[in-house]
Amino acid sequence: MLFAPIIRRALPRRRHLALLLAAALAVLGAPVAAVADAKAIQMVSAAPVPSVGFDGLVYTSTYVGNTMYVGGSFRNALVNGKPVLRKRLAALDARTGKLLPWAPAIDGTVFAMTAAGTQLYVTGKFKNVGGQARAGLAGIDLKTGAVGPLKHTVDGEGTALAAGGGRLYLGGKITKVDGRAVKNLAAFKLTGGAVDTAFPGTADEQVRALTVAGSRLYVGGKFKKLNGAGTPRFGALKTSDGTVDATFRPATPYEVFAITLVPGTVYAGLGGVGGRVAAYKPDGGFIWSTVTDGDIQAITNLGGAVYAGGHFTEVCPTPSASATTWCPGKKLRSQPKVVALDGATGKLLDWNPRSNGKWGVLTMDANPALSKIALGGEFTAFGGVNHPHFAQFSACAYGCGGRSAAHAR
Predict the structure, then answer these.
(1) Keywords on this record (predicted)?
(2) How many domains, the chain?
(3) Model pTM score
């Protein structure tokens, strides 16, 4: 790795035939579960919707209402192919894909972001934000773009952020905050912005992913120990006091790059021998994994599907019941840089936008209210059509034709 109301009209022919078949089977007493399962997954189109692009890598993204914020190494947004100055941060209207006037400037690369209250928090390798000294961590007003009061000096490289329970959590490959020694994790009070010195979180190697859910802070990365305990690569800390939550022990065999959750299931994007999307129970029990031939660097979920991106080119069509098993028969399917899986079973869904680039997709996010997902990264096209470094995909209002969940393999 380089370093988330549809108006009903006439039913489409494919779905209409499926419903007729289901009704016929019901009359005959045959099971209809397969048809119901397929309908339950809401897929997005295989072609991106119109949007601006960027002239450099997009490492991080987040939806906040109807706005999409992106960060990276770019210097310009590309509007109809023409450059518009946006130094490492930009905001788009998520409904239309159009560039918004919000334009704080940063003098270095942004690797991660998260929103809380009125602020967008960003971390990365930078020293100044909006002309003000902010070393590796900053808060920016979501509406005005004004630099917020949060001010600390981070030694190292922040690569993960999350907010919840009154705290802002920072992870990465970091050694000090304001001259105080830390081990790849730190926490700040959202009220006032002070370092939370009572937070005991440490990791013995790099932290790549942070997600707050309920009483847990999920932590993923390259580490072997979390808070000195043997919770390699994936674990959870209690948001109440920062201690290890021993009720979550996934025993993940490979490095964790990204995390997404739905009620009852925790999904992780893994590296390792090739790469994997893995699903776990709330106690860390293994459910399934789907193998790729390159790291899973980004992951999100929408409508019952899990979407994952990375630098892979092929995916195993059959999920595994083991965390380390390779693809049965080594029969992988061409699936460059992005994939959709059934969130319940791990089965490959027939959705293949066909992205490009060496490193592919680096960030993903979902907006359930808009029925959209967003992707950012090193790619420049989907299906041969120019989409430099950023794209949005919208749910299929009237079915996805041959690329719907009904064609899960």
Answers:
(1) Signal
(2) 1
(3) 0.89
